[in-house]
Amino acid sequence: GVVALYRGFPVLSTTVASEKFLYYLAYTFGKKKLSRGGRLSLTSNIVLGYLADIARLPVTMPLDLLSTRMQTSTSGSLTEIFRDLLQARGFLGFYSGWTAYLLLALKPAIQIIVFERLKQHINRRAGRSLDSSLTFKEAFFVGALARLVATLICYPFFFVRISTQSSISGGMNIVVPAIWRSQGLAGFYKGIASELCRGVLFHAVNMGSMEALRDFNSNLLTPKSKAR
Is the pTM here over 0.70, yes or no? Predict the structure, then answer.
């Protein structure tokens, strides 16, 4: 029934919350150590973001695996799935697909690079300073394009990660050749349509809102700066 559609939701919610919290914690800690009160360059931010995403993996990878197995299996409680995984793969089995995770951590960096480069191009053509905020409409479409590019590049690693986590028989060394033999390159992009519909729209709205808020804050502070 409808309840089955929400199977694994508590584990998924815990996983997402843990990912965001640990990423923010690692990023904030790293930024304080590196910036020393100043501003970080775009390159430094990208590298720091990548390392912060890697830092959360020891905690979130097992949760992510359990979440995936809960959603892809039709029976068994969380405790039973945990026990079966431990018996079949051992403790290290909870870190299957770690190579794909390392590559997936590049996705936010790709999004930032594409967005910032296009933002500078639009501002240059509009005669604005390169660091000026985009309008909501501009940021919406640029954000959508940045997410599209990042997804097209990184989706195969995401699909391999999910396939590895769903498989009981083996890791990436077994899953990747099996997908290639049976489906070819197209097999690594299976299900990308739903990911694009969800991810591109979300990121577009997020970036549009962020730029609009940044512009609002800038306009709010400008009169104060002039008064001084």
Answer: yes
∠ Cα 136 138 143 (to 5°): 90
The 10 Å Cβ neighbour count of residue 95 is: 15
What are the tokens at 52? 């912060």
C-beta separation of 11 from 70 below 8 A: yes
If one counts every other C-beta atom within 10 angstroms of the C-beta of residue 60, the result is 23
Give the integer Cα–Cα distance in Å for 126 and 121: 9
The predicted structure's pLDDT at residue 136: 92
Q: How far is the CA of 58 from the CAs of 25, 54, 71, 141, 216, in angstroms?
A: 14, 8, 21, 35, 39
Lowest mean pLDDT of 94-103, 108-117, 127-136, 215-224, name the range. Answer: 215-224
